[in-house]
Write a structure and sequence with these properties.
Bound molecules: NADP nicotinamide-adenine-dinucleotide phosphate
Order of helices and strands: EHEEHEEEEEHEHEHEHEHEHHH
Protein name: Enoyl reductase (ER) domain-containing protein
CATH architecture of the largest domain: Alpha-Beta Complex
InterPro entries: ADH-like_C, ADH-like_N, ER, GroES-like_sf, NAD(P)-bd_dom_sf, Quin_OxRdtase/zeta-crystal_CS, Zn-ADH-like_protein
Number of strands: 13
Domain Enoyl reductase (ER): 11-298
Radius of gyration: 20 Å
Strand content: 15-25%
CATH class of the largest domain: Alpha Beta
Number of helices: 10
GO molecular function, one term: oxidoreductase activity
CATH topology of the largest domain: Quinone Oxidoreductase, Chain A, domain 1
Organism: Oppiella nova
Strand order of the largest sheet: 7-3-5-6-8
Length: 308
């Protein structure tokens, strides 16, 4: 079998190379998954830049989330069976694996799904971060004004829908008319295109009493501006700092995979049901509209990660 391993800590393309290792039976407490789809996250770039686990020994595996079929189970595994469709995700940044043809996973990180619909992949890092983060740290309430940065991104567009479902007034930040259109379709009450509108001016004029919950993923000047518009008793959630991914350690007060692991099972089951019942829209980029075509095969991982 083959998989991607990190060999240096510069940019993703330069940092990785495909390596082949023997495909062996899973350990007694492991599940072996044949990978069909892998999810791409903003965190991949931070990982290869060494920001999340600076003490990791090189080379290490990459890729946070996988959708596939169980190929074999260890003799102590009673919770899963061969042939099941599953999603799997790394419990922490030292256990990444998904950019590989096969993966060995602990059973607690393997969740059954009803089909191989790639939309289920969006429920792991993105879906769980958005929903658990808004509920547990944002403590969103009906009527709250909730501002979501990178709102058309993987995490953001699920956050928008979750906040709307809770009865919030949702403000979404984005950078293009195409993304603004998607956000409007998802129910965003006020889309701010920060390329054509001045964020500080819009918030001062339209939200003079401030914003109750701010989902901050950008950092730098955006963080400074938003901080000044937090309402009294508001909650500012620092979920990432994508503008500084390659230059500075990620400031992050939300590590849901560690802090909120106990909630993940409950939330992911609900989200799977929501996708099946068309209550949650998960928008994916499978590459079909890109000049080089659909992302197919392990070689295409680099292209997927490099998309802005
Ligand atoms: N704490 C956690 O557990 C956790 C989990 C998941 C994600 N995160 C963080 O949440 C953020 C979003 O992650 P994601 O996977 O949803 O990202 P994504 O789908 O790749 O979306 C990223 C979006 O960020 C916006 N952006 C604004 N300024 C940017 C810049 N300087 N460079 C690149 N993108 C910029 C862009 O949208 P516009 O063009 O619309 O501005 C871009 O499409 C990241 O900071 C990530 O690290 C944290």
């Amino acid at each position: 079998m083959s998989g991607w391993g990190i060999y240096t800590t510069s940019n993703f393309r330069e940092a990785v190379k495909v390596v082949s290792v023997p495909l062996v039976a899973p350990g007694d407490d492991q599940v072996l998954i044949r990978n069909i789809y892998a999810g791409v996250n903003a965190a991949d770039v931070g990982t290869t830049a060494g920001l999340f686990n600076p003490n990791a020994e090189l080379p290490f595996d990459v890729g946070l989330e996988a959708l596939g079929v169980i190929e074999a189970v260890g003799k102590n595994v009673t919770t899963h069976t061969v042939g099941q469709y599953v999603i799997a995700f790394g419990a922490n940044h030292t256990k990444e694996f998904a950019y590989a043809e096969y993966l060995y996973v602990q059973p607690e990180d393997v969740i059954p799904v009803p089909s191989l619909n790639p939309k289920f992949l969006g429920l792991l890092v993105s879906g769980l971060t958005a929903t658990i983060g808004l509920d547990e740290l944002g403590r969103i309430q009906k009527g709250d004004k909730v501002l979501i940065t990178a709102s058309a991104g993987g995490t953001g567009h699920i956050g928008v829908q979750w906040a709307k479902r809770k009865g919030a007034y949702v403000i979404g930040l984005t950078s293009s008319p195409e993304k603004a259109k998607l956000l409007t379709e998802l129910g965003t009450d006020r889309v701010i295109d920060y390329k054509t509108e001045n964020l500080d001016e819009v918030l001062t004029k339209e939200f003079p009493h401030g914003v109750d919950v701010i989902w901050e993923t950008i950092g730098g000047q955006v963080y400074e501006t938003l901080f000044n518009h937090l309402a009294p008793k508001g909650r500012l959630l620092i979920v990432g700092s994508i503008s500084g991914h390659l230059t500075s350690p990620t400031i992050d007060n939300l590590n849901m995979k560690v802090d909120h692991k106990a909630l993940c099972g409950k939330y992911v089951r609900q989200l799977i049901g929501d996708v099946v019942n068309n209550k949650l829209r998960v928008v994916l980029d499978l590459g079909q509209n890109r000049s080089e075509g659909e992302f197919v095969g392990i070689e295409s991982v680099v292209r997927g990660v490099e998309i802005p």
